[in-house]
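Hi there, hope your week has been kind to you so far. It would help a lot if you went through both lines with me. No rush at all, and the record is pasted right below:

***
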Amino acid sequence: MKIFKNIGIAAISGMMFLTVPSVATANDPGGCYMVTSSGKTVSLGTLCGMTTAPSSTPTVFKIPIKRRIGKTPIIDVTFNGSQTFEMVFDTGATGILITQKIAQALNFQASGKVKASIADGSIIELQTGRVLTIGVGGAVVNNAQVTVAPKAKIGLLGHGFFEKYDLKILKDQIEFYPR
């Protein structure tokens, strides 16, 4: 199945980045779940001993900014609980874009494609699919939709990751406040 979407381009310090519209909203069912053969996500929180009682004080995840490209933060992002890569924290990107290097390290299996228009006006086709988990500090998104940009040198972490958080970008850190 082919999905046709327009994809924007962002330039940071002379580097070109694709900004990918969200093809599907990342599903974050919590830390204990299963996906049925029909693709439905089922929470297993009670079986795993997880409580769902709301905390009286919301958790704030404080993520250190490693450096910046121009004025845009670069942070460490952990995939599948074990592999960490630097990514641009891009509040203007709708999705999550990973590099070919990240895709290879994760043994990424594409499940779809998206057509993108790039800066020179040409149309390219990019692979899309899901990764088990993407984490930044204690904030984690499960079963996240990502797009692979084979020529990108660094990935982009956009709204597909942090859409359920209010954000505060400070000089040396980013704070995630669950909604």
User: Anything to note?
Assistant: The chain has two helices and 16 strands. Residues 59-110+129-178 form a domain with the Cathepsin D, subunit A; domain 1 fold (CATH 2.40.70.10). Confidence is low (pLDDT under 50) at residues 1-17, 19-27.
